[in-house]
Automatic annotation (TrEMBL):
Function: Part of the twin-arginine translocation (Tat) system that transports large folded proteins containing a characteristic twin-arginine motif in their signal peptide across membranes.
Keyword Chaperone annotated: no
Quaternary state and interactors: Forms a complex with TatA.
Primary location group: membrane
Keyword terms: Cell inner membrane, Cell membrane, Membrane, Protein transport, Translocation, Transmembrane, Transmembrane helix, Transport
Bilayer disposition of the protein: Multi-pass membrane protein
Name the UniProt record assigns to this protein: Sec-independent protein translocase protein TatC
Lineage, opening ranks: Bacteria, Pseudomonadati, Thermodesulfobacteriota, Desulfuromonadia, Geobacterales
Recorded family membership: Belongs to the TatC family.
Biological process (GO), any one: protein transport by the Tat complex
Transmembrane segments annotated in the record for this chain: 20-38, 107-128, 140-166, 186-216, 228-255
An annotated GO cellular component: TAT protein transport complex
Molecular-function annotations in GO: proton motive force dependent protein transmembrane transporter activity
Subcellular location: Cell inner membrane; Membrane
């Protein structure tokens, strides 16, 4: 009896090792491809340091409206002076030998991981597939596609929308005698960590969809636990030091939970009415 219990466990470990090895090889290949454009990715991440982002253009449009409609307010608060200063040339600094090389490796690893996401999600599916029914196994393509798109959407949303907000807020503290001096490792590590976090946050609706289709969760369960989801979002966000980062993590995280609730309602497994079964 003991051998019968141990054998399936060993088989699962062997299968898990196989999936991990394939995933590792895929990430290494993705890293090799990403290495060629890792400097371009670093340049993109550095763009908010100039202080000229979509926020600047948005502010300019708002101020122009104020100038046309309320010229007295525009003159009183000297709003035109904000746009007289040219973009500053800020650069990232490093203080340790080989620091730029290791940062390039980190960027290449994360970019390579995102590049081979379909392979990684497929390996996850193959690992859990033996425990699924034949009908459930046919969901592999929708699962891999939705998971990849969701993660990439979360990463892109962070880089395009949230990252400029965080850096602009940080630069707003610059004043006479107080200048920014960003460290390369701290800057890039902070960005990469949030890219992964936002990618995972955007995976919540996909996870909810799968669990709802398998009958593990339903709309009523998720809707009933909204307050706990809000509390969990606040706790997760609280691990980040500054209030702005906490806010930009907590809000999307809870919003993705709300999306998950409605996904479970629309796509969840429908309960079969016993009376309809007897009638049929």
């Amino acid at each position: 009896m003991a051998d019968e219990k141990v054998l399936p466990f060993i088989e699962h470990l062997v299968e898990l090792r196989k999936r991990i090895i394939i995933s590792f090889i895929a990430v290494v290949i993705g890293m090799g491809i990403s290495w060629n454009f890792s400097n371009d990715l670093l340049t993109f991440v550095e763009k908010p340091l100039t202080g000229k982002t979509y926020l600047t253009e948005l502010k300019k449009q708002v101020y122009n409206e104020v100038k046309e409609r309320y010229p007295s307010i525009y003159s009183r608060y000297k709003l035109d002076e904000e746009f007289k200063t040219s973009a500053k040339e800020r650069v990232l600094n490093y203080s340790a030998p080989l620091e730029p090389f290791f940062i390039q490796c980190k960027i290449s690893i994360i970019a390579g991981l995102i590049l081979v996401l379909p392979v990684l999600f497929h390996q996850v599916w193959l690992f859990v597939a033996p425990g699924l029914t034949g009908r459930e196994r046919r969901m592999v393509i929708p699962f891999v596609t939705a998971s990849t798109i969701s993660f990439c959407a979360g990463a892109a949303f962070f880089l395009i929308v949230i990252w400029p907000v965080i850096i602009n807020f940080s630069l707003s503290y610059e004043a006479q005698g107080l200048q920014s001096w960003f460290n390369l490792s701290a800057y890039v590590n902070f960005c990469l960590r949030l890219i992964l976090m936002f990618g995972l946050i955007f995976e919540l609706p996909v996870l909810a969809l799968l669990l709802a289709r398998f009958g593990i969760v339903n709309y009523q369960l998720l809707a009933r636990n909204r307050k706990y989801a809000l509390l969990a979002s606040s706790i997760i966000a609280a691990f980040h030091a500054d209030l702005i980062t906490m806010f930009v993590i907590m809000v999307p995280l809870y919003l993705m939970y709300e999306v998950s609730v409605w996904v479970a309602l629309i796509f969840g497994k429908k309960k079969i009415n016993p009376s309809e079964t007897r009638t049929g």
